[in-house]
Amino acid sequence: MTLRRLTFDDLEDCSRLAEDRNWGAERHKWRLLFEVGEPYGIEAPDGDGLAATNVLTPYGDDHAVISMVLTASRYARRGLGRQLMNHVLERADGRAVSLYATEHGRPLYEEFGFRVAGMTATRTGVFHGEPSGRTRPATPADLEAILALDAEVFGTDRSPVLRRMSGFGEGVRIADGGYAHRWDNDGTTAIGPVVARDERTARDLIGDLALDAGRKIRIDLDLDREDLTRWTEEHGLTRAFTCAHMVWHGDLPGDRSRQFLPFMLALG
User: Which residue, of 94, 111, 135, is where some domain finishes?
Assistant: First the structure.
C-alpha cells in the first residue's frame, strides 16, 4: 500500500473516508487543514480512494498537532493507522505533539507514548442570551494585535492559521484582553479559538458570537472549566461527546488558563 503526501485532488476522497467512519464530510475543514498542514494518506489497494489518512500541522519549531486519523472500515485492524502515526511522528522532528482522542483511538496513541493532559467535552445547541455590549467585530487593523496575543498565550506561532480566519470563518470579535472566531462546519457554527484574559471576557466573546450566528453552535470545552460549563448549560448547550487531549514528547505549550476554546479539535 502506497503512503504519500496528499494533494488538493484528494479532498473528495478524504470526505468520503470520513463519511465511511460516520464522521461528517467537513469539506470546508479538510481544505483548511490541507492549506496549513501536512496531509498524508495510504491509497486503497482496491483503487477506490484512500484506505487511511492523517494530518500533521506544525506550529513553529516546538509544537505540532495530529488530526483526521481515519482508516476505511474495510481496512480496519491492518495496522494502517499505526503506519501513518509512525510517519508523522518522525515528520514532527522533535516537536511536542498533541491530539484529541476518542475512546476508540486512545489505545493506539497510548502505545506510542501519548499521555492524557486533560479531557474535553463537545457541547452543542442553540444559545439563548443577550448581547454583552463588551465586544466588537474585529477589523483588519486588529490582526497584528490578535497574532501577538495569541503567540503569547498559545506559546508558539500559529499565525499561518489565524491569518486565514477572515476568509475561512464567519466572524471574529475582540474584547479588552481577548478575541474569538466562529466558522461554519456542515451547517453548525463552531466557535474557536477563544483566547481571553479571564472567564468573564471568554463568556462575552462566546455569547456574542453565538448570538450573531443565530443557529446551532458547537464548542469544545475542557471539563475542568466547571463554572463555564454550567454557564453554557444555562444558555442552551448540552454535551455531545467527550475526548482526551493527549500529548507526546513534551508538554502542551502556553498559558492554558487563557486558552478557553481550541480553534478546532483538529488544530488545537
Answer: 94
Query: Residue 58 to residues 118, 158, 210, 211: CA-CA distances in angstroms?
Result: 21, 8, 29, 33
β-bridge partners, 57: 65
Spans in the chain with pLDDT lower than 70: none
- Tell me which of 74, 94, 114 is where a domain ends: 94
Does the pTM surpass 0.85? The reply is yes
Whether residues 224 and 148 share a domain: the answer is yes
Give a yes or no: residue 90 inside a domain: yes
**Which three cell numbers mark 129?**
442570551
For 249, the domain range is 122-261
Q: Using one digit for the tens of pLDDT, what is the confidence trace for 52-109?
A: 999 999 999 999 999 999 999 999 989 999 999 999 999 999 999 999 999 999 999 9
Q: How far is it, in rounded angstroms, from Cα 64 to Cα 58?
A: 4
